[in-house]
Specification:
The chain has about 650 residues and is mainly α. It has helices at about 5-15, 20-40, 75-85, 95-105, 115-120, 145-245, 250-300, 305-425, 435-445, 460-480, 490-495, 500-525, 535-560, 560-580, 595-600, 600-615, 615-645, 650-655, and strands at about 55-60, 65, 70, 90, 110, 135. InterPro entries: ABC2_TM (IPR013525), Phage_infect_YhgE_C (IPR017501), Phage_infect_YhgE_N (IPR017500), T7SS_ABC-Transporter (IPR051328), xxxLxxG_rpt (IPR023908).
Length: about 650
Amino acid sequence: MTSIRLAITELRRITAGRLPKLAVVALCLIPLLYGGLYLYANRDPYGKLDDVPAALVVEDTGVRQPDGTVRNVGAEVAQELLDGHAFDWYRIDAAAAEEGVRTGTYTFALTLPADFSEALTSTADFTPRQAVLVLTTNDANNYLARTIAGTLTSRVHDAVAEQVGTEAADRFLTGFATVHDKLGEAADGADQLASGAGTARDGADQLASGAGRLADGHRQLLDGATQLESGAAQLADGLGQLRDGTKTLPSDADALADGAEQVAAGNRKIADAGATVAGVAQKIADRISSADDELRSELVAAGLTDEQVDKALAKLQPLRQELLAGNTKLQQVNDQLSQLADGSEQVAAGARKLADAAPQLASGIAQAADGADQLHEGATALKDGEQSALDGAVALKDGAAELASGVGKLADGAAQLHDGLESGMAGVPALDDDTRTATAQTIADPLAVRNVAENEAADYGAGLAPFFMTLAAWIGAYVLFLLLQPLSTRAIAANQPSWRVALGGWLPAALLGMVQTTVLYLVLMLGLGIEPVHPVLTLGLMWLASACFTAVVHGLNALLGATGQFLGLVLMVLQLVSAGGTFPWQTIPDPLYPLHYALPMSYVIDGLRQLMYGGELMRVAGDTGVVLVWLVAGLALATYAARARRVWTPAQVRPELVL
């Protein structure tokens, strides 16, 4: 009887009937139920954190900035958290948050205190203190939630610290730029000061020379002031006499005006009489011009001849001429009388104006006399002032000479100051806006992390898949022998070779294990979308792992029976804690290190990681070698058990423990 015949016989035994067939199907699905459901449930837990309720308390009152505006960093952080949707945030007050975390309504609470903004900007006025983020957790809600929330607060801390640090560094560097600019302005000012001091020194020399000339001019002015004082004294005396002589001027002018008005009135009467006489004379003259014709007519009518008439009229001609000449003179006299009357009236008007102005004239003369006295006093003061000015000009000359010397020293010092400021300015960085911004960001966050992923899992579920696929394969191998017989009693009784009996007892489990791992693999690939870099090799390694695990469990069950079945469970637990399926295996306690190096599950997990994420195939070869060693060891143990079972013992006939 071959090993294959033994395997087929065992498979027929366990599938004889409907219920056994269902049991076989159930056994094939156990790894799927374990590995598939666990990976499905934990495929991407971080992608569902936005469903985790968290309380957000913003008590920040903000801080007033130098430009007068109020900035609330706490509100800014809160808005970023709300917009980021990392958790299902509820913005509430402190009391409600504390109550919610205590009762489990909220997984945790994040509080931004009232002085959050003020503390962040405290370095600006050199009263530095740290801002505080208050994280309230309750492990009774979930322990890992505290770790995840702590990671969030660390990120918020880093982001806020970087932002505030960048702003502070930017202000610091802006101060450097301001200092550089001011030093440049100061250097320019020092240069201008040096140039101006040189000019001032020349001006001081000119001032000293001018002060000498000024002193000479003041001497001349002093002489002129002395003469002015003497002349003002004479003027005051003369005006005093004039004032005395014009005291009666108003009354005299008034009398003169009255007389002139009387003369004007008389002349006007004479002019009016002359005008009357001139009018009569003019009428007579006009009558004489037309009287010749009338007289001729009357003489002719009287019977005189023309000759007689002409002689008579000739006798009257000299008289007529004299009358006309007298009229002409009379008219001229009349015009002169009219002009005289007009002139008299003008004289009278002028005399009246003079009379009216005489009081003011007299007063003006008096004031002029008083002014002359004041002029004399002012001239005396001017002479004294010019003496003082002369003394001051002499002192100015001496001071200007000293000033020229001092300004020369100032020019030398200003030149040294200019050189020193330029030297200092060279030591102060002058940054443009882009460089200053980049420098501030580097100061605030000097370390950048660049993640270089040699090999990368798609998500959390894909990252845990190698561990749970391996663990599911062991569980699948373990449960198979709840139904399968490790060794065929009939084959042993027929004295079949031990290796054949052992191989025949292992092959059904190996075949069913391949079915288990194939179903698990297909569901993970097609259902959960976990795509290995080397899909065929991955499936092959899973088959090998299942074969190895079934061989080990088979050997233990074959040799020790129920005790071996229990040891298979213990061996699973030992591998579970030492294989490094979740945390790096180096984090396990030191006494467990030998288990990690010795047991097969560690190598199956490592091999699956290399194949699924695109790692080193040489490592897979080494891992495969270790797994093959364990497979052979399991078959060897089963072979030894088959040989040992040839001799029946009381324990085999009636075992003390049956599982």
